[in-house]
Design goal:
Radius of gyration: 15 Å
Number of helices: 5
Number of strands: 4
Order of helices and strands: HEEEHHHHE
Strand content: 5-15%
Helix content: 40-55%
Length: 116
């Protein structure tokens, strides 16, 4: 399978998992024909790693968190990588986002969608 097709398949799967994370247990079949299952006990709903998630995954998580213009903020999250694994509050990300004057509510929504 070509790398671009793998990326597309992973993006579809990540989006499907992100969308189903809001329910307690839901089985979904993605457009790629892969059955996924998400449970609320597996991980905080909609959270993705600020260090390892790709831009599509971060965008989806930010959108689910109600962040306005999630595409733009996903790019900013990726720009300031890596984040310290023990920085659960993502303090360095908060400091870098402050440069853009997004407002405390926006910063809180962005951080609420991410893990280090």
């Amino acid at each position: 399978m070509k790398p671009s097709k793998i990326r597309i398949a992973l993006a579809v799967i990540a989006t499907a998992v992100s969308l189903t994370a809001c329910t307690s247990t839901t089985d979904q079949t993605t457009s790629a024909g892969v059955s996924t299952s998400a449970t609320s006990a597996s991980a905080p709903a909609g959270k993705v790693s600020a260090n390892t998630a790709d831009e599509t995954q971060i965008t989806a998580a930010l959108k689910a968190a109600g962040v306005t213009n999630p595409e733009r903020w996903a790019k900013e999250v990726m720009e300031y990588r890596p984040y310290a694994a023990d920085d659960n509050d993502l303090t360095s990300l908060r400091q870098n986002l402050a440069k853009y004057n997004p407002g405390q509510d926006t910063v809180d929504k962005i951080v609420s969608a991410l893990t280090p």
